[in-house]
Amino acid sequence: MPLLPRLRTRIVKLLRIVRVAWYRRVWGMHLGMGVRISGKAYLDFTNPHGLHIGDYTIVTPRVQIFTHDFVHNRHVDTRVGACCFIGAGAIILPGVTIGDHSVVAAGAVVTRDVPSNSMVAGNPAQVVKSGLQTGRYGVLASGED
Predict the structure, then answer these.
(1) pLDDT, tens digit, 9 for 90 and up, residues 52-67
(2) Are residues 66 and 44 in contact, defined by beta-carbon separation less than 8 angstroms?
(3) Rounded-to-integer distance, Cα 129 and Cα 3, Å
(4) Whole-angstrom Cα distance, residue 118 to residue 49?
(5) Could you give the CA distance from residue 115 to residue 48 in angstroms, rounded to a whole number?
(6) Residue 132 backbone phi and psi in degrees, to 5
(7) Residue 68 is among the residues annotated as catalytic for this protein
(8) Would you list the DSSP string of 51-91?
(9) How far is CA 90 from the centre of its chain?
(10) Can you give the pLDDT at residue 79?
(11) What are the tens digits of pLDDT across the range 116-137?
(12) Contacts of 109 (CB under 8 A, 6+ apart)
């Protein structure tokens, strides 16, 4: 492999590690081991201590996760479980809990809690599949559609 692509890959990995460490130490977010957060994702800095993301979860570009509701003047905890995949452009509203091993489809607007081992899609997000088996980062186990 040529030098430039190898260098670029190493820089991206380093930036990913630095970003997660910054969110944990400076902002006080509760992020699990192996979490991957896109540089283009929006995490709520109004109440950063209210954000909890489990181990080996991936948050893709343009995802918005909120931990405050300005209209109702409340700061709440928003939780994303372990081994989840949050698709591009998804919006997770404050106070929502997404269970472990769940998949949030791209563009979904999550207004209510999501059960573990589920896939949700739409606006507002609805459960479209239950009983999912996922591995790290919400990758579906072999045999899942």
Answers:
(1) 999 999 999 999 999 9
(2) yes
(3) 43
(4) 26
(5) 24
(6) -70, 150
(7) yes
(8) EEE-TT-EE-TT-EE--EETTTTEE--EEE-SS-EE-TT-E
(9) 9
(10) 98
(11) 999 999 999 999 999 999 999 9
(12) 90, 91, 93, 122, 123, 124, 125
Residue ranges and CATH numbers for the domains of the chain are: 3-138 (2.160.10.10)
DSSP code, position 15: H
Regions of the chain short of the pLDDT cut 50: none
Q: Could you give the CA distance from residue 6 to residue 29 in angstroms, rounded to a whole number?
A: 31
List the helix and strand counts (H, then E) for the chain: 1, 16
Active-site position among 30, 49, 68, 75:
68
Q: Which residues pair with 80 in a beta bridge?
A: 53, 98
Strands 42-43 and 64-65: parallel
12: amino acid identity, one letter: V
Q: Kindly state the helix (H) or strand (E) to which residue 97 belongs, with its residue range.
A: strand 97-98
Q: Which amino acid is at 59?
A: V
- Measured between alpha carbons, how far is 77 from 81 in angstroms, rounded to an integer? 13
Q: What angle do CA 18, 105, 42 make, to 5 degrees?
A: 35
Q: What whole-number distance in Å separates Cα of residue 130 and Cα of residue 115? A: 8
